[in-house]
Design a protein that fits this description.
The complex is a heterodimer. Chain A has 5 helices and no strands. Chain A is an all-alpha fold. Chain B is an all-alpha fold. Chain B is globular, with a radius of gyration of 11 Å. Chain B starts with a helix and ends in a 10-residue tail after the last helix. Classes of the chains: A mainly alpha, B mainly alpha. Chains A and B meet through helix 4 of A and helix 3 of B.
Chain lengths: 138, 69
């Protein structure tokens, strides 16, 4: 994400508090589950709390894509996201069949989002590096 | 898509950053267009053409006619 564009700056302004909310929700939920040992609907409600900021981050990302007026940067971000989706789907397919045939045990679905973010970030770095290597003066 | 952007920019002694500011895009965008790694949308192509006072086809090389040139 380019901090130099107005949309990029707005993205950061939205992203930072959302991720802070995520950290608070994760810590709060962990403490609450450890201390209160909730069950049933209470446990389900508590468990969903940390996911809400993640859903909000997806909205923040969507807003960035909608608001980014620099079409090249937007294309670069979307391309990186698609790469991330490809990585998640590839891993899901391989792990899915490994699970179907009982070659491995349970794998937490939770990891899909971090893997997507990581792959997206990696692709973004590669594309930014390619741009720098492409030459042209500053 | 091949284009004359770098030449036109050099004729005016503009840096990529200068051109980017005039077009209200990032320097990376200018660099990607100049090096042919990114084809601008029609609105941006028109904006570039307007800035240089030229027609789009005087800046961007039609890929279909590229071999003829």
């Amino acid at each position: 994400m380019q901090r130099t564009t107005p949309a990029g700056r707005r993205y950061l302004k939205r992203f930072t508090p959302t991720m802070l909310a995520y950290v608070v929700a994760v810590l709060g939920t962990s403490v609450a589950v450890d201390q209160l040992h909730p069950t049933g609907a209470a446990l389900a409600t508590l468990s969903i709390l940390p996911a809400l900021p993640i859903l909000a981050v997806l909205v923040v990302i969507g807003l960035y894509i909608r608001e980014e007026t620099d079409e090249y940067l937007r294309q670069r971000v979307v391309t990186s996201m698609l790469f991330g989706i490809g990585v998640v789907l590839a891993i899901s397919a391989v792990l899915g069949f490994l699970q179907i045939y009982r070659a491995i045990g349970q794998v937490d679905v939770f990891w899909a989002f971090p893997i997507w973010c990581g792959s997206w970030g990696l692709a973004q770095c590669v594309l930014a590096w390619r741009d720098r290597m492409a030459g042209g003066e500053a | 898509m091949n284009n004359r952007l770098r030449v036109l920019r050099a004729e005016r002694a503009w840096s990529q950053q200068d051109l980017a500011e005039r077009l209200e895009v990032s320097r990376q965008s200018v660099n990607a267009i100049e090096t042919g790694r990114y084809d601008p949308s029609l609105p941006l192509a028109f904006k570039i053409a307007d800035l240089f006072g030229l027609a789009i086809e005087e800046i961007f090389v039609n890929p279909a006619k590229e071999q003829d040139q």
